[in-house]
Amino acid sequence: MVKDLSGSRWNQAKRFGLKLRWQWRSLERRFNAWIESKPRLQAATLSTWKFLASPLFRRGAFATVAVTLVVAVSGYAYSLRVPGNSHRGSDQPLEIPPLDEGTVIEGTRQFRLVVDESQKQLLPGMATNTAGISGPYLGPTLRMKRGDDVSILVENNLAEMTTMHWHGMHVPAKMDGTPHQEIQPGETWTATFPVEQQAATLWYHPHPHGNTGDQVYQGLAGMIWIDDQNSQALQMPQTYGVDDFPLVIQDRNFNRSNQFRLPGGIGLGTTILVNGTINPSLEVESRQTRFRLLNGSNGRTYHIGFDDEREFLQVGTDGGLLETPLRTQRIILAPGERAELIVDFSDGKEVMLKSFPEAGLLETAEMILWGQGSGNFDLVRLQPTKTPSRILPHVTVETPLCTIDRYQEADAKVTRHIRFGGRERGDRDPISNGGGRPFEDARQRGGGGRGGFAINGQSMDMHRIDERVRLGDTEIWELTNGTGQAHPFHIHLVQFQILDRDGRPPSGADRGWKDTILVHPGDRIRTIMKFDRYSDARTPYMYHCHIMAHEDNGMMGQFLVVEEPDQLALLAGEPTVLIFVYGLDCEHCFEQVTLFDEHLGAAGINLVVITPESEPNAEREKSVACPIVSDPENRWAGWFKMLHDGPAHGTLLIDADENVVWGDTQDTPYMDVDAVIERYRELVSAEAG
Ligand code: C2O
Ligand code: CU
Ligand code: CU
What we know:
Number of strands: 37
Strand order of the largest sheet: 14-13-12-16-21-18-19
Distance between the termini: 61 Å
Radius of gyration: 28 Å
Bound molecules: CU-O-CU linkage, copper (II) ion
């Protein structure tokens, strides 16, 4: 019996119950809303109730339940037996993406990626229209080493905008390839960064706002392999395409003319592509071989193992090697996750790498009800026909791979609560600004997206900063899920560690570096991470669900990493009005400053003015009583989550704990000083009461 990796039976049953309850409630809500919109129906429902109570209906209901049960059970039995690949056919040799180690010019490792439309013969008959990166489908495996300075030029030959994100890499925000680093058709963009992280299997893919799923589906993705001194010294398979293979696993659907058809929902397909190959087979040497798996699918989670149920070693997770290999028969891979495996073929037996149906009846019922199953798919046929070209010592569960220093809970200054779906009572609303739109009053803000594609009740807004992190801090991010589906949480910039799951300390692969983790309904996962590099007060990083249909529909948030500004002591732990100006030398800015200085001064309200000028006009500075902070790096703006992506004057009211309770950003300064005084008084009396 294969050990079930998705938690205890009890846990599964609990999750299942939660999903059912959630589904029931959302149906109920929708039904009630619908009834309320139809007054005539309301009268009719009375007779419906009578009907529901009738013996005729009850018999019908019983029959329905019975039939559903039979269908579910036989569906389960069926799913256990038949591989789901709908395009069965002859095996194809597994394609191996070209290895690209770049060209080192003047100490910089340089890469060039050309993103373009293309075609590929995937099925018999018509070729499939695809997109690829320096090739017809997918892109080369970029290999780099810790300590390298890297530059990657991305050329966009698509007819639409794209971006290129280095998933799992520690890079400055401007180099991250998020929705904020657009590459227009015909344009190029160059990312430069030092490689400062341990050996790992990462990947790259487009990240345009609302369009990631579509572009990845066409074929835009590739792997990044990082080596370091430690990994290179290990007696472990690491020769690309010889004893160390990339496996990019994706599910696709085709229409009748062999074209990709991204289905609705989370985009589950019935044909598996590995490295862009259908029905792949691979000849390997009859010895230990390493595989680097990437779930590059839009929405499907896989339960991966071998058809003969052989054991294998997991040696790496998303962000690096494990301390020692882990012996297992299954790994679970959600969209965006990676795993490194070592498989022993010295018995010379052919074996199929498979994705198994989910671990039991409950999960199969889930798959039928919510369509989130892993299905029963052949992935790659492995044929150990080659004689070993070299003999390496056997990797065992005792082989030391690396050391992972555990982050200490006591070092974490901040705990953030990230809840997929709606908000919990007591959650603070982030405030929206930018694009010339006024801030909304946080306390007046309505419900918003509960249960929809939201995180903490908020849908992605490129002009809103959801979280602000202080550079250098260690933080705990507690992940929960208020929806009826599992969501893989991914965060940019850092690799995190799992502190605990439902209070239990991590074991096995949970002790490895992660940047993506599946959060089931009912889970409470505490992750811990350190933001020790790269601050940028203007450019945010993302965190989101990696089910692409979900991220594209708003299940994403933005965070800034900011150095703590100087002179924060000016806030004096009091509610304060902040005015962000273009400059004291700007006439209407100064007009606002003098007006507010006079009136707020008279009312005894703390006022701080922030200017990006490094040497503000000394005469004007002296003419007002309030402090003028010179902040050329926009740290204050970043600290108070003002995304300074364009000209905007900002007036904010913050409470004693530095939370923004009201704000206005416009092309012109906010001049209604009385309204601000009014809000200030409301705030003070609310804080007192
Ligand atoms: Cu793999 Cu924000 O992405
Ligand atoms: Cu999701
Ligand atoms: Cu101005």
